[in-house]
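User: Predict the complex.
Assistant: Input components as received:
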Amino acid sequence: MLNSDRNRMKLNSDKWFSEVYPDDGCALSLELSEKLYEEQTPWQKLEVYQTTKFGNLMLLDGCVMLTGRDNFIYHEMMTHPALCMHSAPKKVLIIGGGDCGCLREVLKHPIVKNVHQVDLDERVTWASEKYFPELCESNNDPRAILSFTDGVVFIEQAAGNSYDVIIVDSVDPVGQAARLYSEEFYRACYSSLSENGILVAQSESPLFHRDLIKSMQTRMADAGFNDVTTLFFPQCTYPSGWWSASMAFKGSKPLNYRTVDFNTEYYNNDIHLAAQAVPQFLR
Ligand code: SAM
């Protein structure tokens, strides 16, 4: 049904959540039906709401982390392109990702032998298990290890050749997460990756954060990675509705990729290629 009633409706703040992006004079609003949970964890403010049309909504420090309706795009694009481009992604590390959506997608790949998820805040995983159980259905997979500590410290202590793919599913580059976007962090990831290892990190909005994407690509290259590619995809409830993930290759960027033999909702062979097309203003 078309949104024929799109209009300048005045939003009742009791019934609507709005995330405002002041630097871009823009906001996103979601109609709420119920507040489900709120907690000030040792690291961040955690909130969960039920919405009228987007399922459950998780906020961290007032920012949308995921909704039940559209998280599949992000979690598939943060995992399948990199895993399919690596010839044998047996050892995977996820830094951040406490909602477990990326973990679920990684474990769909039979070739993966173990995946270690390291999130700063165990309360995020607790809340996801309670309010987004569909994302946590693989948490008890014997291949999965869930740890709760600072990912920056963890990777600095990781041995060389520990991982084939590292996925950095973190919040925006602020506070405890800022160091997850640094050259030093990328250098530590490079060291802990195997010979043809791949790093993939969420890299924000191409429209709102062009300079951040460029600087991440430069830092990854300066950290020693041989090639860097950014994936572009829609993400309705993130700033601008257009998102990205940047992949860095320790070896040569693979031209071939394995196809998935399990169900996905967004990712497929065509998307794998199309997502790597670089918009003109980002070249
Ligand atoms: N998809 C979301 C996005 O793009 O903003 C990210 C979701 S995920 C829930 C973000 C996670 O990053 C949070 O659970 C948070 O605890 C974690 N995080 C932030 N800083 C971290 C750090 N230094 N080490 C490990 N995890 C961190």
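The chain has a mean pLDDT of 96.
Let me know if you want any component modeled separately.
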